[in-house]
């Protein structure tokens, strides 16, 4: 039988058919499992990164630990977590949060390092107290570098979620296992296409956010 | 008035950056700290607004010990200009200038109005207000830095090598601008530089530092040039000390002779010296505003060595013969010494 690469009728039938494997449901789960780790990662990376930037001695050990975590196979992390959190989204979200941290902590540290010393000094000399200087001067100037890290973490997270299919929580990754088991390519193609589209869409959103937040840095590039 | 009273800065490793410094920076004047790198001039400056705290001694701001004032409150009352301007890259020029007013809690409208006023005051176009710092040249950024330091109208201004990073022509115009502003504002300015020419040009009083944080000499520029305290200061002042000193002696006292017939005039203004080969060049100076250095320069530019004295409108007042100029130079204060 001459099987086409994509059977459009299958997509139509499975888009929103109420089953837990409906493409739309998988897409929604994928989005949640990809973005929650980045948001959590950013919330945790800010204080950790600021601490590392402030006390440089911390930076080496922290990145060391983070790199070890990053090097661990997700599957190993899943099996450790399974006994605690079971076959839930949480089991996927926790390792992905750790991966995001490994990217975002250095981004925050680099962002703080990108603040020119003379700018920091002149802020102090004009009478900024440390907290106000951090919020109104240092963090805004660090934003482009931090956002560059967020973009990397987001795209990585979107692609990594599919691994969760191994424990039945992979979002669009479920389409891969389904396709392989049945030797039926349409779900695989749909899965790949949606993940790529999702990654591109998220990246474009972040670029738009960056332009909105740091008009001064966009202007610098075009100058 | 800013008073250093036996101020020493010693770091934990034992390095002494400033050693028992005592001096007074008079109100409404420019006091320049000058010296080679590592002489403690910047450290001394930063102890005034407590960016660095002194190890020993006291610094008094109009009689009050700065250590009794909470640092950020102290700093909001002292303007500060740093070498690379230190502007906030993420804020528009108008908001950069309004930084201290915002910190002091002025409302936005008033702070921005004040910023616009200062933008004009430092000689910048109002349409730069909406730009970001990187869109300005180095010289423009430095002017914004000065405007920002003046925003809340502090009585004291600290300037840390503010013009070092710009090219010589821009530096000169920034220096002129500062002197012009100072003649209107009468701030108490402490200015740090490693450039002795800048120190002599800007300072009402110059403090020469030597490595190790010692004060080598503290005097007005003319005295500094005519009577260097020791070999270090003499060497630091460099060559041409004698000629540079003439800049501080007004030409007002010179003895003028009536213009000789060889000087060709048109509407009372000089056009050149008559000679067999046609008109020869002349040099002129204005005794009312110029220094003896300008008179000497005019003499050297004149084909026959006679400087032409003119008034503000360029009309001839008389001429200055070489002998009269020599007399004025050697009779000037401290001229025989140094």
TrEMBL record, chain A:
Membrane topology: Multi-pass membrane protein
GO cellular component, one term: plasma membrane
Segments forming domain ABC transmembrane type-1: 27-207
Membrane-crossing segments per the record: 31-53, 65-86, 92-113, 134-167, 187-209
Pfam families: BPD_transp_1
Biological process (GO), any one: transmembrane transport
Primary location class: membrane
Localisation: Cell membrane; Membrane
SUPFAM superfamilies in the record: MetI-like
Family: Belongs to the binding-protein-dependent transport system permease family.
PANTHER family assigned: GLYCINE BETAINE/L-PROLINE TRANSPORT SYSTEM PERMEASE PROTEIN PROW, OSMOPROTECTANT IMPORT PERMEASE PROTEIN OSMW
Protein name: ABC transporter permease
TrEMBL record, chain B:
Keyword Kinase on entry: no
Ranges in coiled-coil conformation: none
Keyword annotations of the record: ATP-binding, Nucleotide-binding, Transport
Residue ranges occupied by any ABC transporter domain in the UniProt entry: 2-237
Gene Ontology molecular function: ABC-type quaternary ammonium compound transporting activity; ATP binding; ATP hydrolysis activity
Enzyme class: translocase
Homology family: Belongs to the ABC transporter superfamily.
Domain of life per record: Bacteria
Pfam short name (any one): ABC_tran
Organism expressing this protein natively: Acrocarpospora phusangensis
Protein name: ABC-type quaternary amine transporter
EC number, UniProt record: 7.6.2.9
């Amino acid at each position: 039988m001459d099987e086409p690469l994509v059977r459009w009728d299958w997509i139509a039938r499975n888009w929103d058919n109420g089953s837990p494997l409906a493409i739309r449901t998988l897409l929604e789960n994928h989005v949640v499992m990809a973005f929650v780790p980045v948001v959590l990662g950013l919330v945790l990376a800010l204080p950790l990164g600021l601490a590392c930037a402030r006390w440089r001695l911390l930076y080496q050990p922290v990145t060391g630990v983070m790199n070890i975590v990053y090097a661990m196979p997700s599957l190993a992390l899943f099996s450790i977590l399974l006994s605690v959190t079971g076959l839930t989204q949480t089991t996927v979200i926790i390792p992905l949060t750790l991966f995001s941290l490994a990217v975002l902590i250095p981004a925050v540290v680099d962002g703080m390092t990108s603040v020119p010393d003379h700018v920091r000094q002149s802020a102090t000399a004009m009478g900024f107290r440390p907290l106000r200087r951090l919020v109104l001067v240092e963090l805004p100037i660090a934003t482009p570098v931090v956002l560059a890290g967020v973009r990397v973490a987001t795209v990585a997270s979107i692609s990594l979620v599919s691994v969760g299919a191994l424990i039945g929580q992979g979002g669009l990754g479920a389409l891969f296992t389904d396709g392989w088991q049945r030797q039926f390519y349409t779900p695989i193609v749909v899965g790949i296409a949606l993940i790529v589209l999702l990654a591109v869409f998220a990246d474009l959103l972040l670029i738009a956010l960056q332009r909105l937040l740091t008009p001064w840095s966009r202007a610098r590039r075009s100058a | 008035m800013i008073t250093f009273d036996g101020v020493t800065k010693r770091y934990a490793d034992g390095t002494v950056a400033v050693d028992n410094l005592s001096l007074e920076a008079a109100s409404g004047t420019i006091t320049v700290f000058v010296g080679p790198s590592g002489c403690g001039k910047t450290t001394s400056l930063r102890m005034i607004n407590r960016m660095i705290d002194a190890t020993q001694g006291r610094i008094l701001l109009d009689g009050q010990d700065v250590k009794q004032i909470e640092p950020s409150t102290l700093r909001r009352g002292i303007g500060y200009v740093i070498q690379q301007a230190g502007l906030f890259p993420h804020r528009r020029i108008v908001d950069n200038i309004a930084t201290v007013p915002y910190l002091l809690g002025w409302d936005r409208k008033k702070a921005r109005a004040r910023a616009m006023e200062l933008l004009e005051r430092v000689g910048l176009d109002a349409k730069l207000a909406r730009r970001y710092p990187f869109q300005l040249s180095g010289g423009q950024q430095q002017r914004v830095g000065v405007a920002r330091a003046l925003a809340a109208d502090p009585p004291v201004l600290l300037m840390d090598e503010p013009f070092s990073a710009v090219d010589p022509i821009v530096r000169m115009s920034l220096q002129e601008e500062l002197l012009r502003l100072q003649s209107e504002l009468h701030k108490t300015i402490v200015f740090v530089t490693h450039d002795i020419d800048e120190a002599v040009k800007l300072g009402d009083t110059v403090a020469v530092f030597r490595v190790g944080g010692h004060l080598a000499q503290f005097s007005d520029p003319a005295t500094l040039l005519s009577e260097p305290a020791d070999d270090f200061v003499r060497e630091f002042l460099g060559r041409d000390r004698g000629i540079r000193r003439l800049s501080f002696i007004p030409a007002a006292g010179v003895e003028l002779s009536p213009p000789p017939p060889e000087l060709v005039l048109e509407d009372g203004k000089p056009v050149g010296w008559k000679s067999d080969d046609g008109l020869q060049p002349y040099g002129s100076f204005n005794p009312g505003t110029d220094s003896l250095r300008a008179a000497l320069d005019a003499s050297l530019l004149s084909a026959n060595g006679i400087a032409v004295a003119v008034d503000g409108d360029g009309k001839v007042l008389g001429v200055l013969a070489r002998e009269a100029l020599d007399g004025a130079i050697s009779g000037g204060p401290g001229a025989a010494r140094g």
